[in-house]
Amino acid sequence: MRIAIYDLDNTLTRRATFTPFLIFAARRIALWRLALLPVWVAMMIAYRAGLYDRTTLKTGGMKLMVGKVGIATLQDVGREFADRRVADDGLMPATLALLEEDRRQGARIAIATAAFEFYAAAFAKHLDIDTVIGTRWDGRSIVGGNCYGETKLARVRAWAAEQNHQLEDAEFRFVSDSFADAPLLDLAYEPIFISASSRKREKAKARGWRIISAD
Q1: Are residues 96 and 157 in the same domain?
Q2: Which of 112, 125, 185, 190 has its CA 20 to 30 A from that of 179?
Q3: What number of other Cβ atoms are within 10 A of residue 198's Cβ?
Q4: CATH code of the domain in which 119 resides
Q5: Using CA atoms, how far apart are residues 78 and 123, in angstroms rounded to an integer?
Q6: How far is Cα 35 from Cα 98, in angstroms, rounded to an integer?
Q7: Do 141 and 60 belong to one domain?
């Protein structure tokens, strides 16, 4: 069984999606929230300083820039956001070539991302990918943890088990730009690391991962 799993931000997309989504959603839902952007920037600086974790940061970002909005509305805004990004040449050509290769070989394809599922699913639809394993939002909080690092590995394992597959027994390709995905990259039969940074590419090469330049 061939399984191919892709990260979203900076892997299938050329750039990260969360902050751009927050800005896009604020414009569509509550324009006045754009005045709070300096607060969001301060929150990101505090996160980088180690004052809180990613789950706290993302939860705070949603509450600050989006507010209490139903999932149906978020899905609608997410589709518009993805449509705009894709139309604006927002997908990564090198990764799209891998995706077509996986399709030709009959792979079971999924996206596994820390991005919220309500908009990651819209990118997946553009790419004709049915399965999205992402961070879940219930309108107030993140459910089941941020889909990142070891949590992403656990979520991918659970998905594979539902399909009656074990990742260790599969011809498993995993593609990502992030060292946070090292648990999945190290597990994969074919780990692929994509980056425009020569320093990161050298570090990934030292771990035995296949390297693709995002230049």
Answers
A1: yes
A2: 125
A3: 11
A4: 3.40.50.1000
A5: 9
A6: 40
A7: no
